[in-house]
Design brief:
Layout: E1 3-21, E2 24-38, E3 43-49, H1 55-64, H2 76-88, H3 97-119, H4 123-126, E4 134-136, E5 139-140, H5 146-158, E6 163-167, H6 172-185, E7 190-194, H7 201-211, E8 216-220, H8 228-233, E9 242-244, H9 251-259, E10 265-268, H10 276-288, E11 292-295, H11 302-312, E12 334-336, E13 345-347, E14 357-358, H12 360-372, E15 376-377
Parallel strand pairs: 5-6, 6-7, 7-8, 8-9, 9-10, 10-11
Antiparallel strand pairs: 1-2, 2-3, 2-15, 4-13, 12-14
Helix pairs in contact: 1-3, 2-3, 5-6, 9-10
């Protein structure tokens, strides 16, 4: 089954409301839609997660695509890393694994969709089979002020989410007010926080001690990812379970974090690992250390939700409260199936490929928005 064509379409998908977090205010998800068409007429669809601008990644994709044409779709992973060695690393970009992975992930993931559709099997079966029938997701609390976040937390509790997730790192007093408001609205649910690298070591220790009375299940990436395993070891005295996010992209980084005994969870997405195979490799490393892996969301659409649901269903140490971001969009690209969790869980589709159908009118509108607007504004 040879590849006839690979098409890329840049999209900008606006959020319903401004997205407030430690890095400022984000307005949209910039992504690249990837379509792999085989000589048999099968089309596999995925997306590459990008940011803050699409153009550099489009340039890399345009350079890479000729290396895939006429080759077997089953050889996609080999072709990706052949291109990395001869077309990317060889040009002096060898340290840019993260940019490469997020750029090329859509090609790897679209190939699995094409294989699944061609064989009539869901991607989870193509990868060896699901070990669960549903995947769990947390309620992602949104808003700017503590009152706004409190109100949304109340809604998510009513919808039955057993875990809520809140962004902090926006200022010490504001963070405390936010967490207090959410905990008052949701006194009996598990609560997780994410500081998105906002704190240095002393501030992280101080803030985690101040936040501990609110019964925080896990603190995600409180310090810069560049500090690596040593940064998390310095926080162990704070007495709060921790998750690594921006510290890990490569399977080798998962190994280093797990070997440090400093984190209880690895937060990692399919785009960051360059697709399904290396994500599952990372999950296997974490499983050997008895550490959970949590599906990470980036600025994405329901396409990534469908992909992550299929791939995540195949690993034994998947967390029960993962991240999705499609619900933040004013208009998602998925026509079917419904991606709204029921009491925090989504069933694993048994339809061929990733099991979704696109709303092509929505795709066209998102492409037009890409042509017109920017995706973010800086923090004040």
């Amino acid at each position: 089954m040879k590849i006839r064509d690979i098409r890329t379409t840049p999209l900008l998908c606006h959020f319903k409301n401004d997205y407030h977090w430690a890095d400022g205010v984000t307005l949209s998800s910039p992504i690249v839609l990837i379509e792999i068409e085989t000589e048999d007429g099968v089309i596999g669809i995925a997306e590459s997660g990008v940011g803050p601008t699409i153009e550099p990644m489009l340039a890399i994709l345009r350079d890479a695509i000729p290396h895939f044409i006429g080759k077997s779709v089953y050889d996609t992973n080999k072709l990706i890393w052949d291109y990395f060695m001869t077309g990317f690393k060889a040009r002096g970009m060898g340290s840019q694994y993260r940019m490469f992975s997020r750029t090329m992930s859509g090609i790897e993931l679209a190939a699995w969709d094409a294989i699944g559709r061609a064989t009539g099997q869901p991607v989870c079966n193509v990868l060896g089979g699901a070990v669960r029938d549903e995947v769990g997701y947390f309620g992602f609390v949104q808003g700017d002020t503590p009152n706004e976040l409190r109100s949304h937390a109340e809604e998510l509790v009513k919808e039955g989410y057993p875990v809520l997730y809140v962004k902090v790192g926006r200022g010490n007093d504001l963070d405390l007010a936010i967490v207090k408001a959410v905990r008052e609205a949701a006194p009996h649910v598990r609560l997780r926080l994410d500081a998105n690298e906002a704190w240095d070591t002393l501030q992280a220790i101080t803030m985690m001690k101040r936040l501990k009375p609110f019964d925080i299940e896990i603190m995600e990436q409180p310090i810069p990812g560049t500090t690596g395993p040593d940064g998390f070891r310095r926080l162990q005295g704070a007495g709060m379970p921790m998750a690594a996010d921006q510290s890990v992209y490569l399977p080798e980084e998962v190994f280093a974090l797990c070997s440090s005994h400093a984190v209880q969870s690895i937060v990692l997405g399919l785009h960051e690992t360059c697709g399904a195979l290396r994500w599952r490799q990372a999950a296997g490393i974490a499983a050997a250390a008895n550490v959970r892996i949590n599906i990470h969301g980036i600025f994405e659409t329901g396409i990534t939700t469908c992909m992550a649901n299929q791939v995540g269903a195949t690993v034994s140490n998947l967390d029960d409260a993962n991240q999705i971001m499609w619900q933040l969009l004013a208009e998602d690209l998925i026509q079917s199936p419904s991606l709204k969790p029921s009491r925090g869980f989504l069933p694993v589709s048994r339809k061929p490929g990733y099991g979704f159908e696109l709303n092509w009118d929505a795709v066209n509108r998102a492409h037009e928005k890409y042509r017109q607007r920017q995706a973010w504004v800086p923090a004040l």
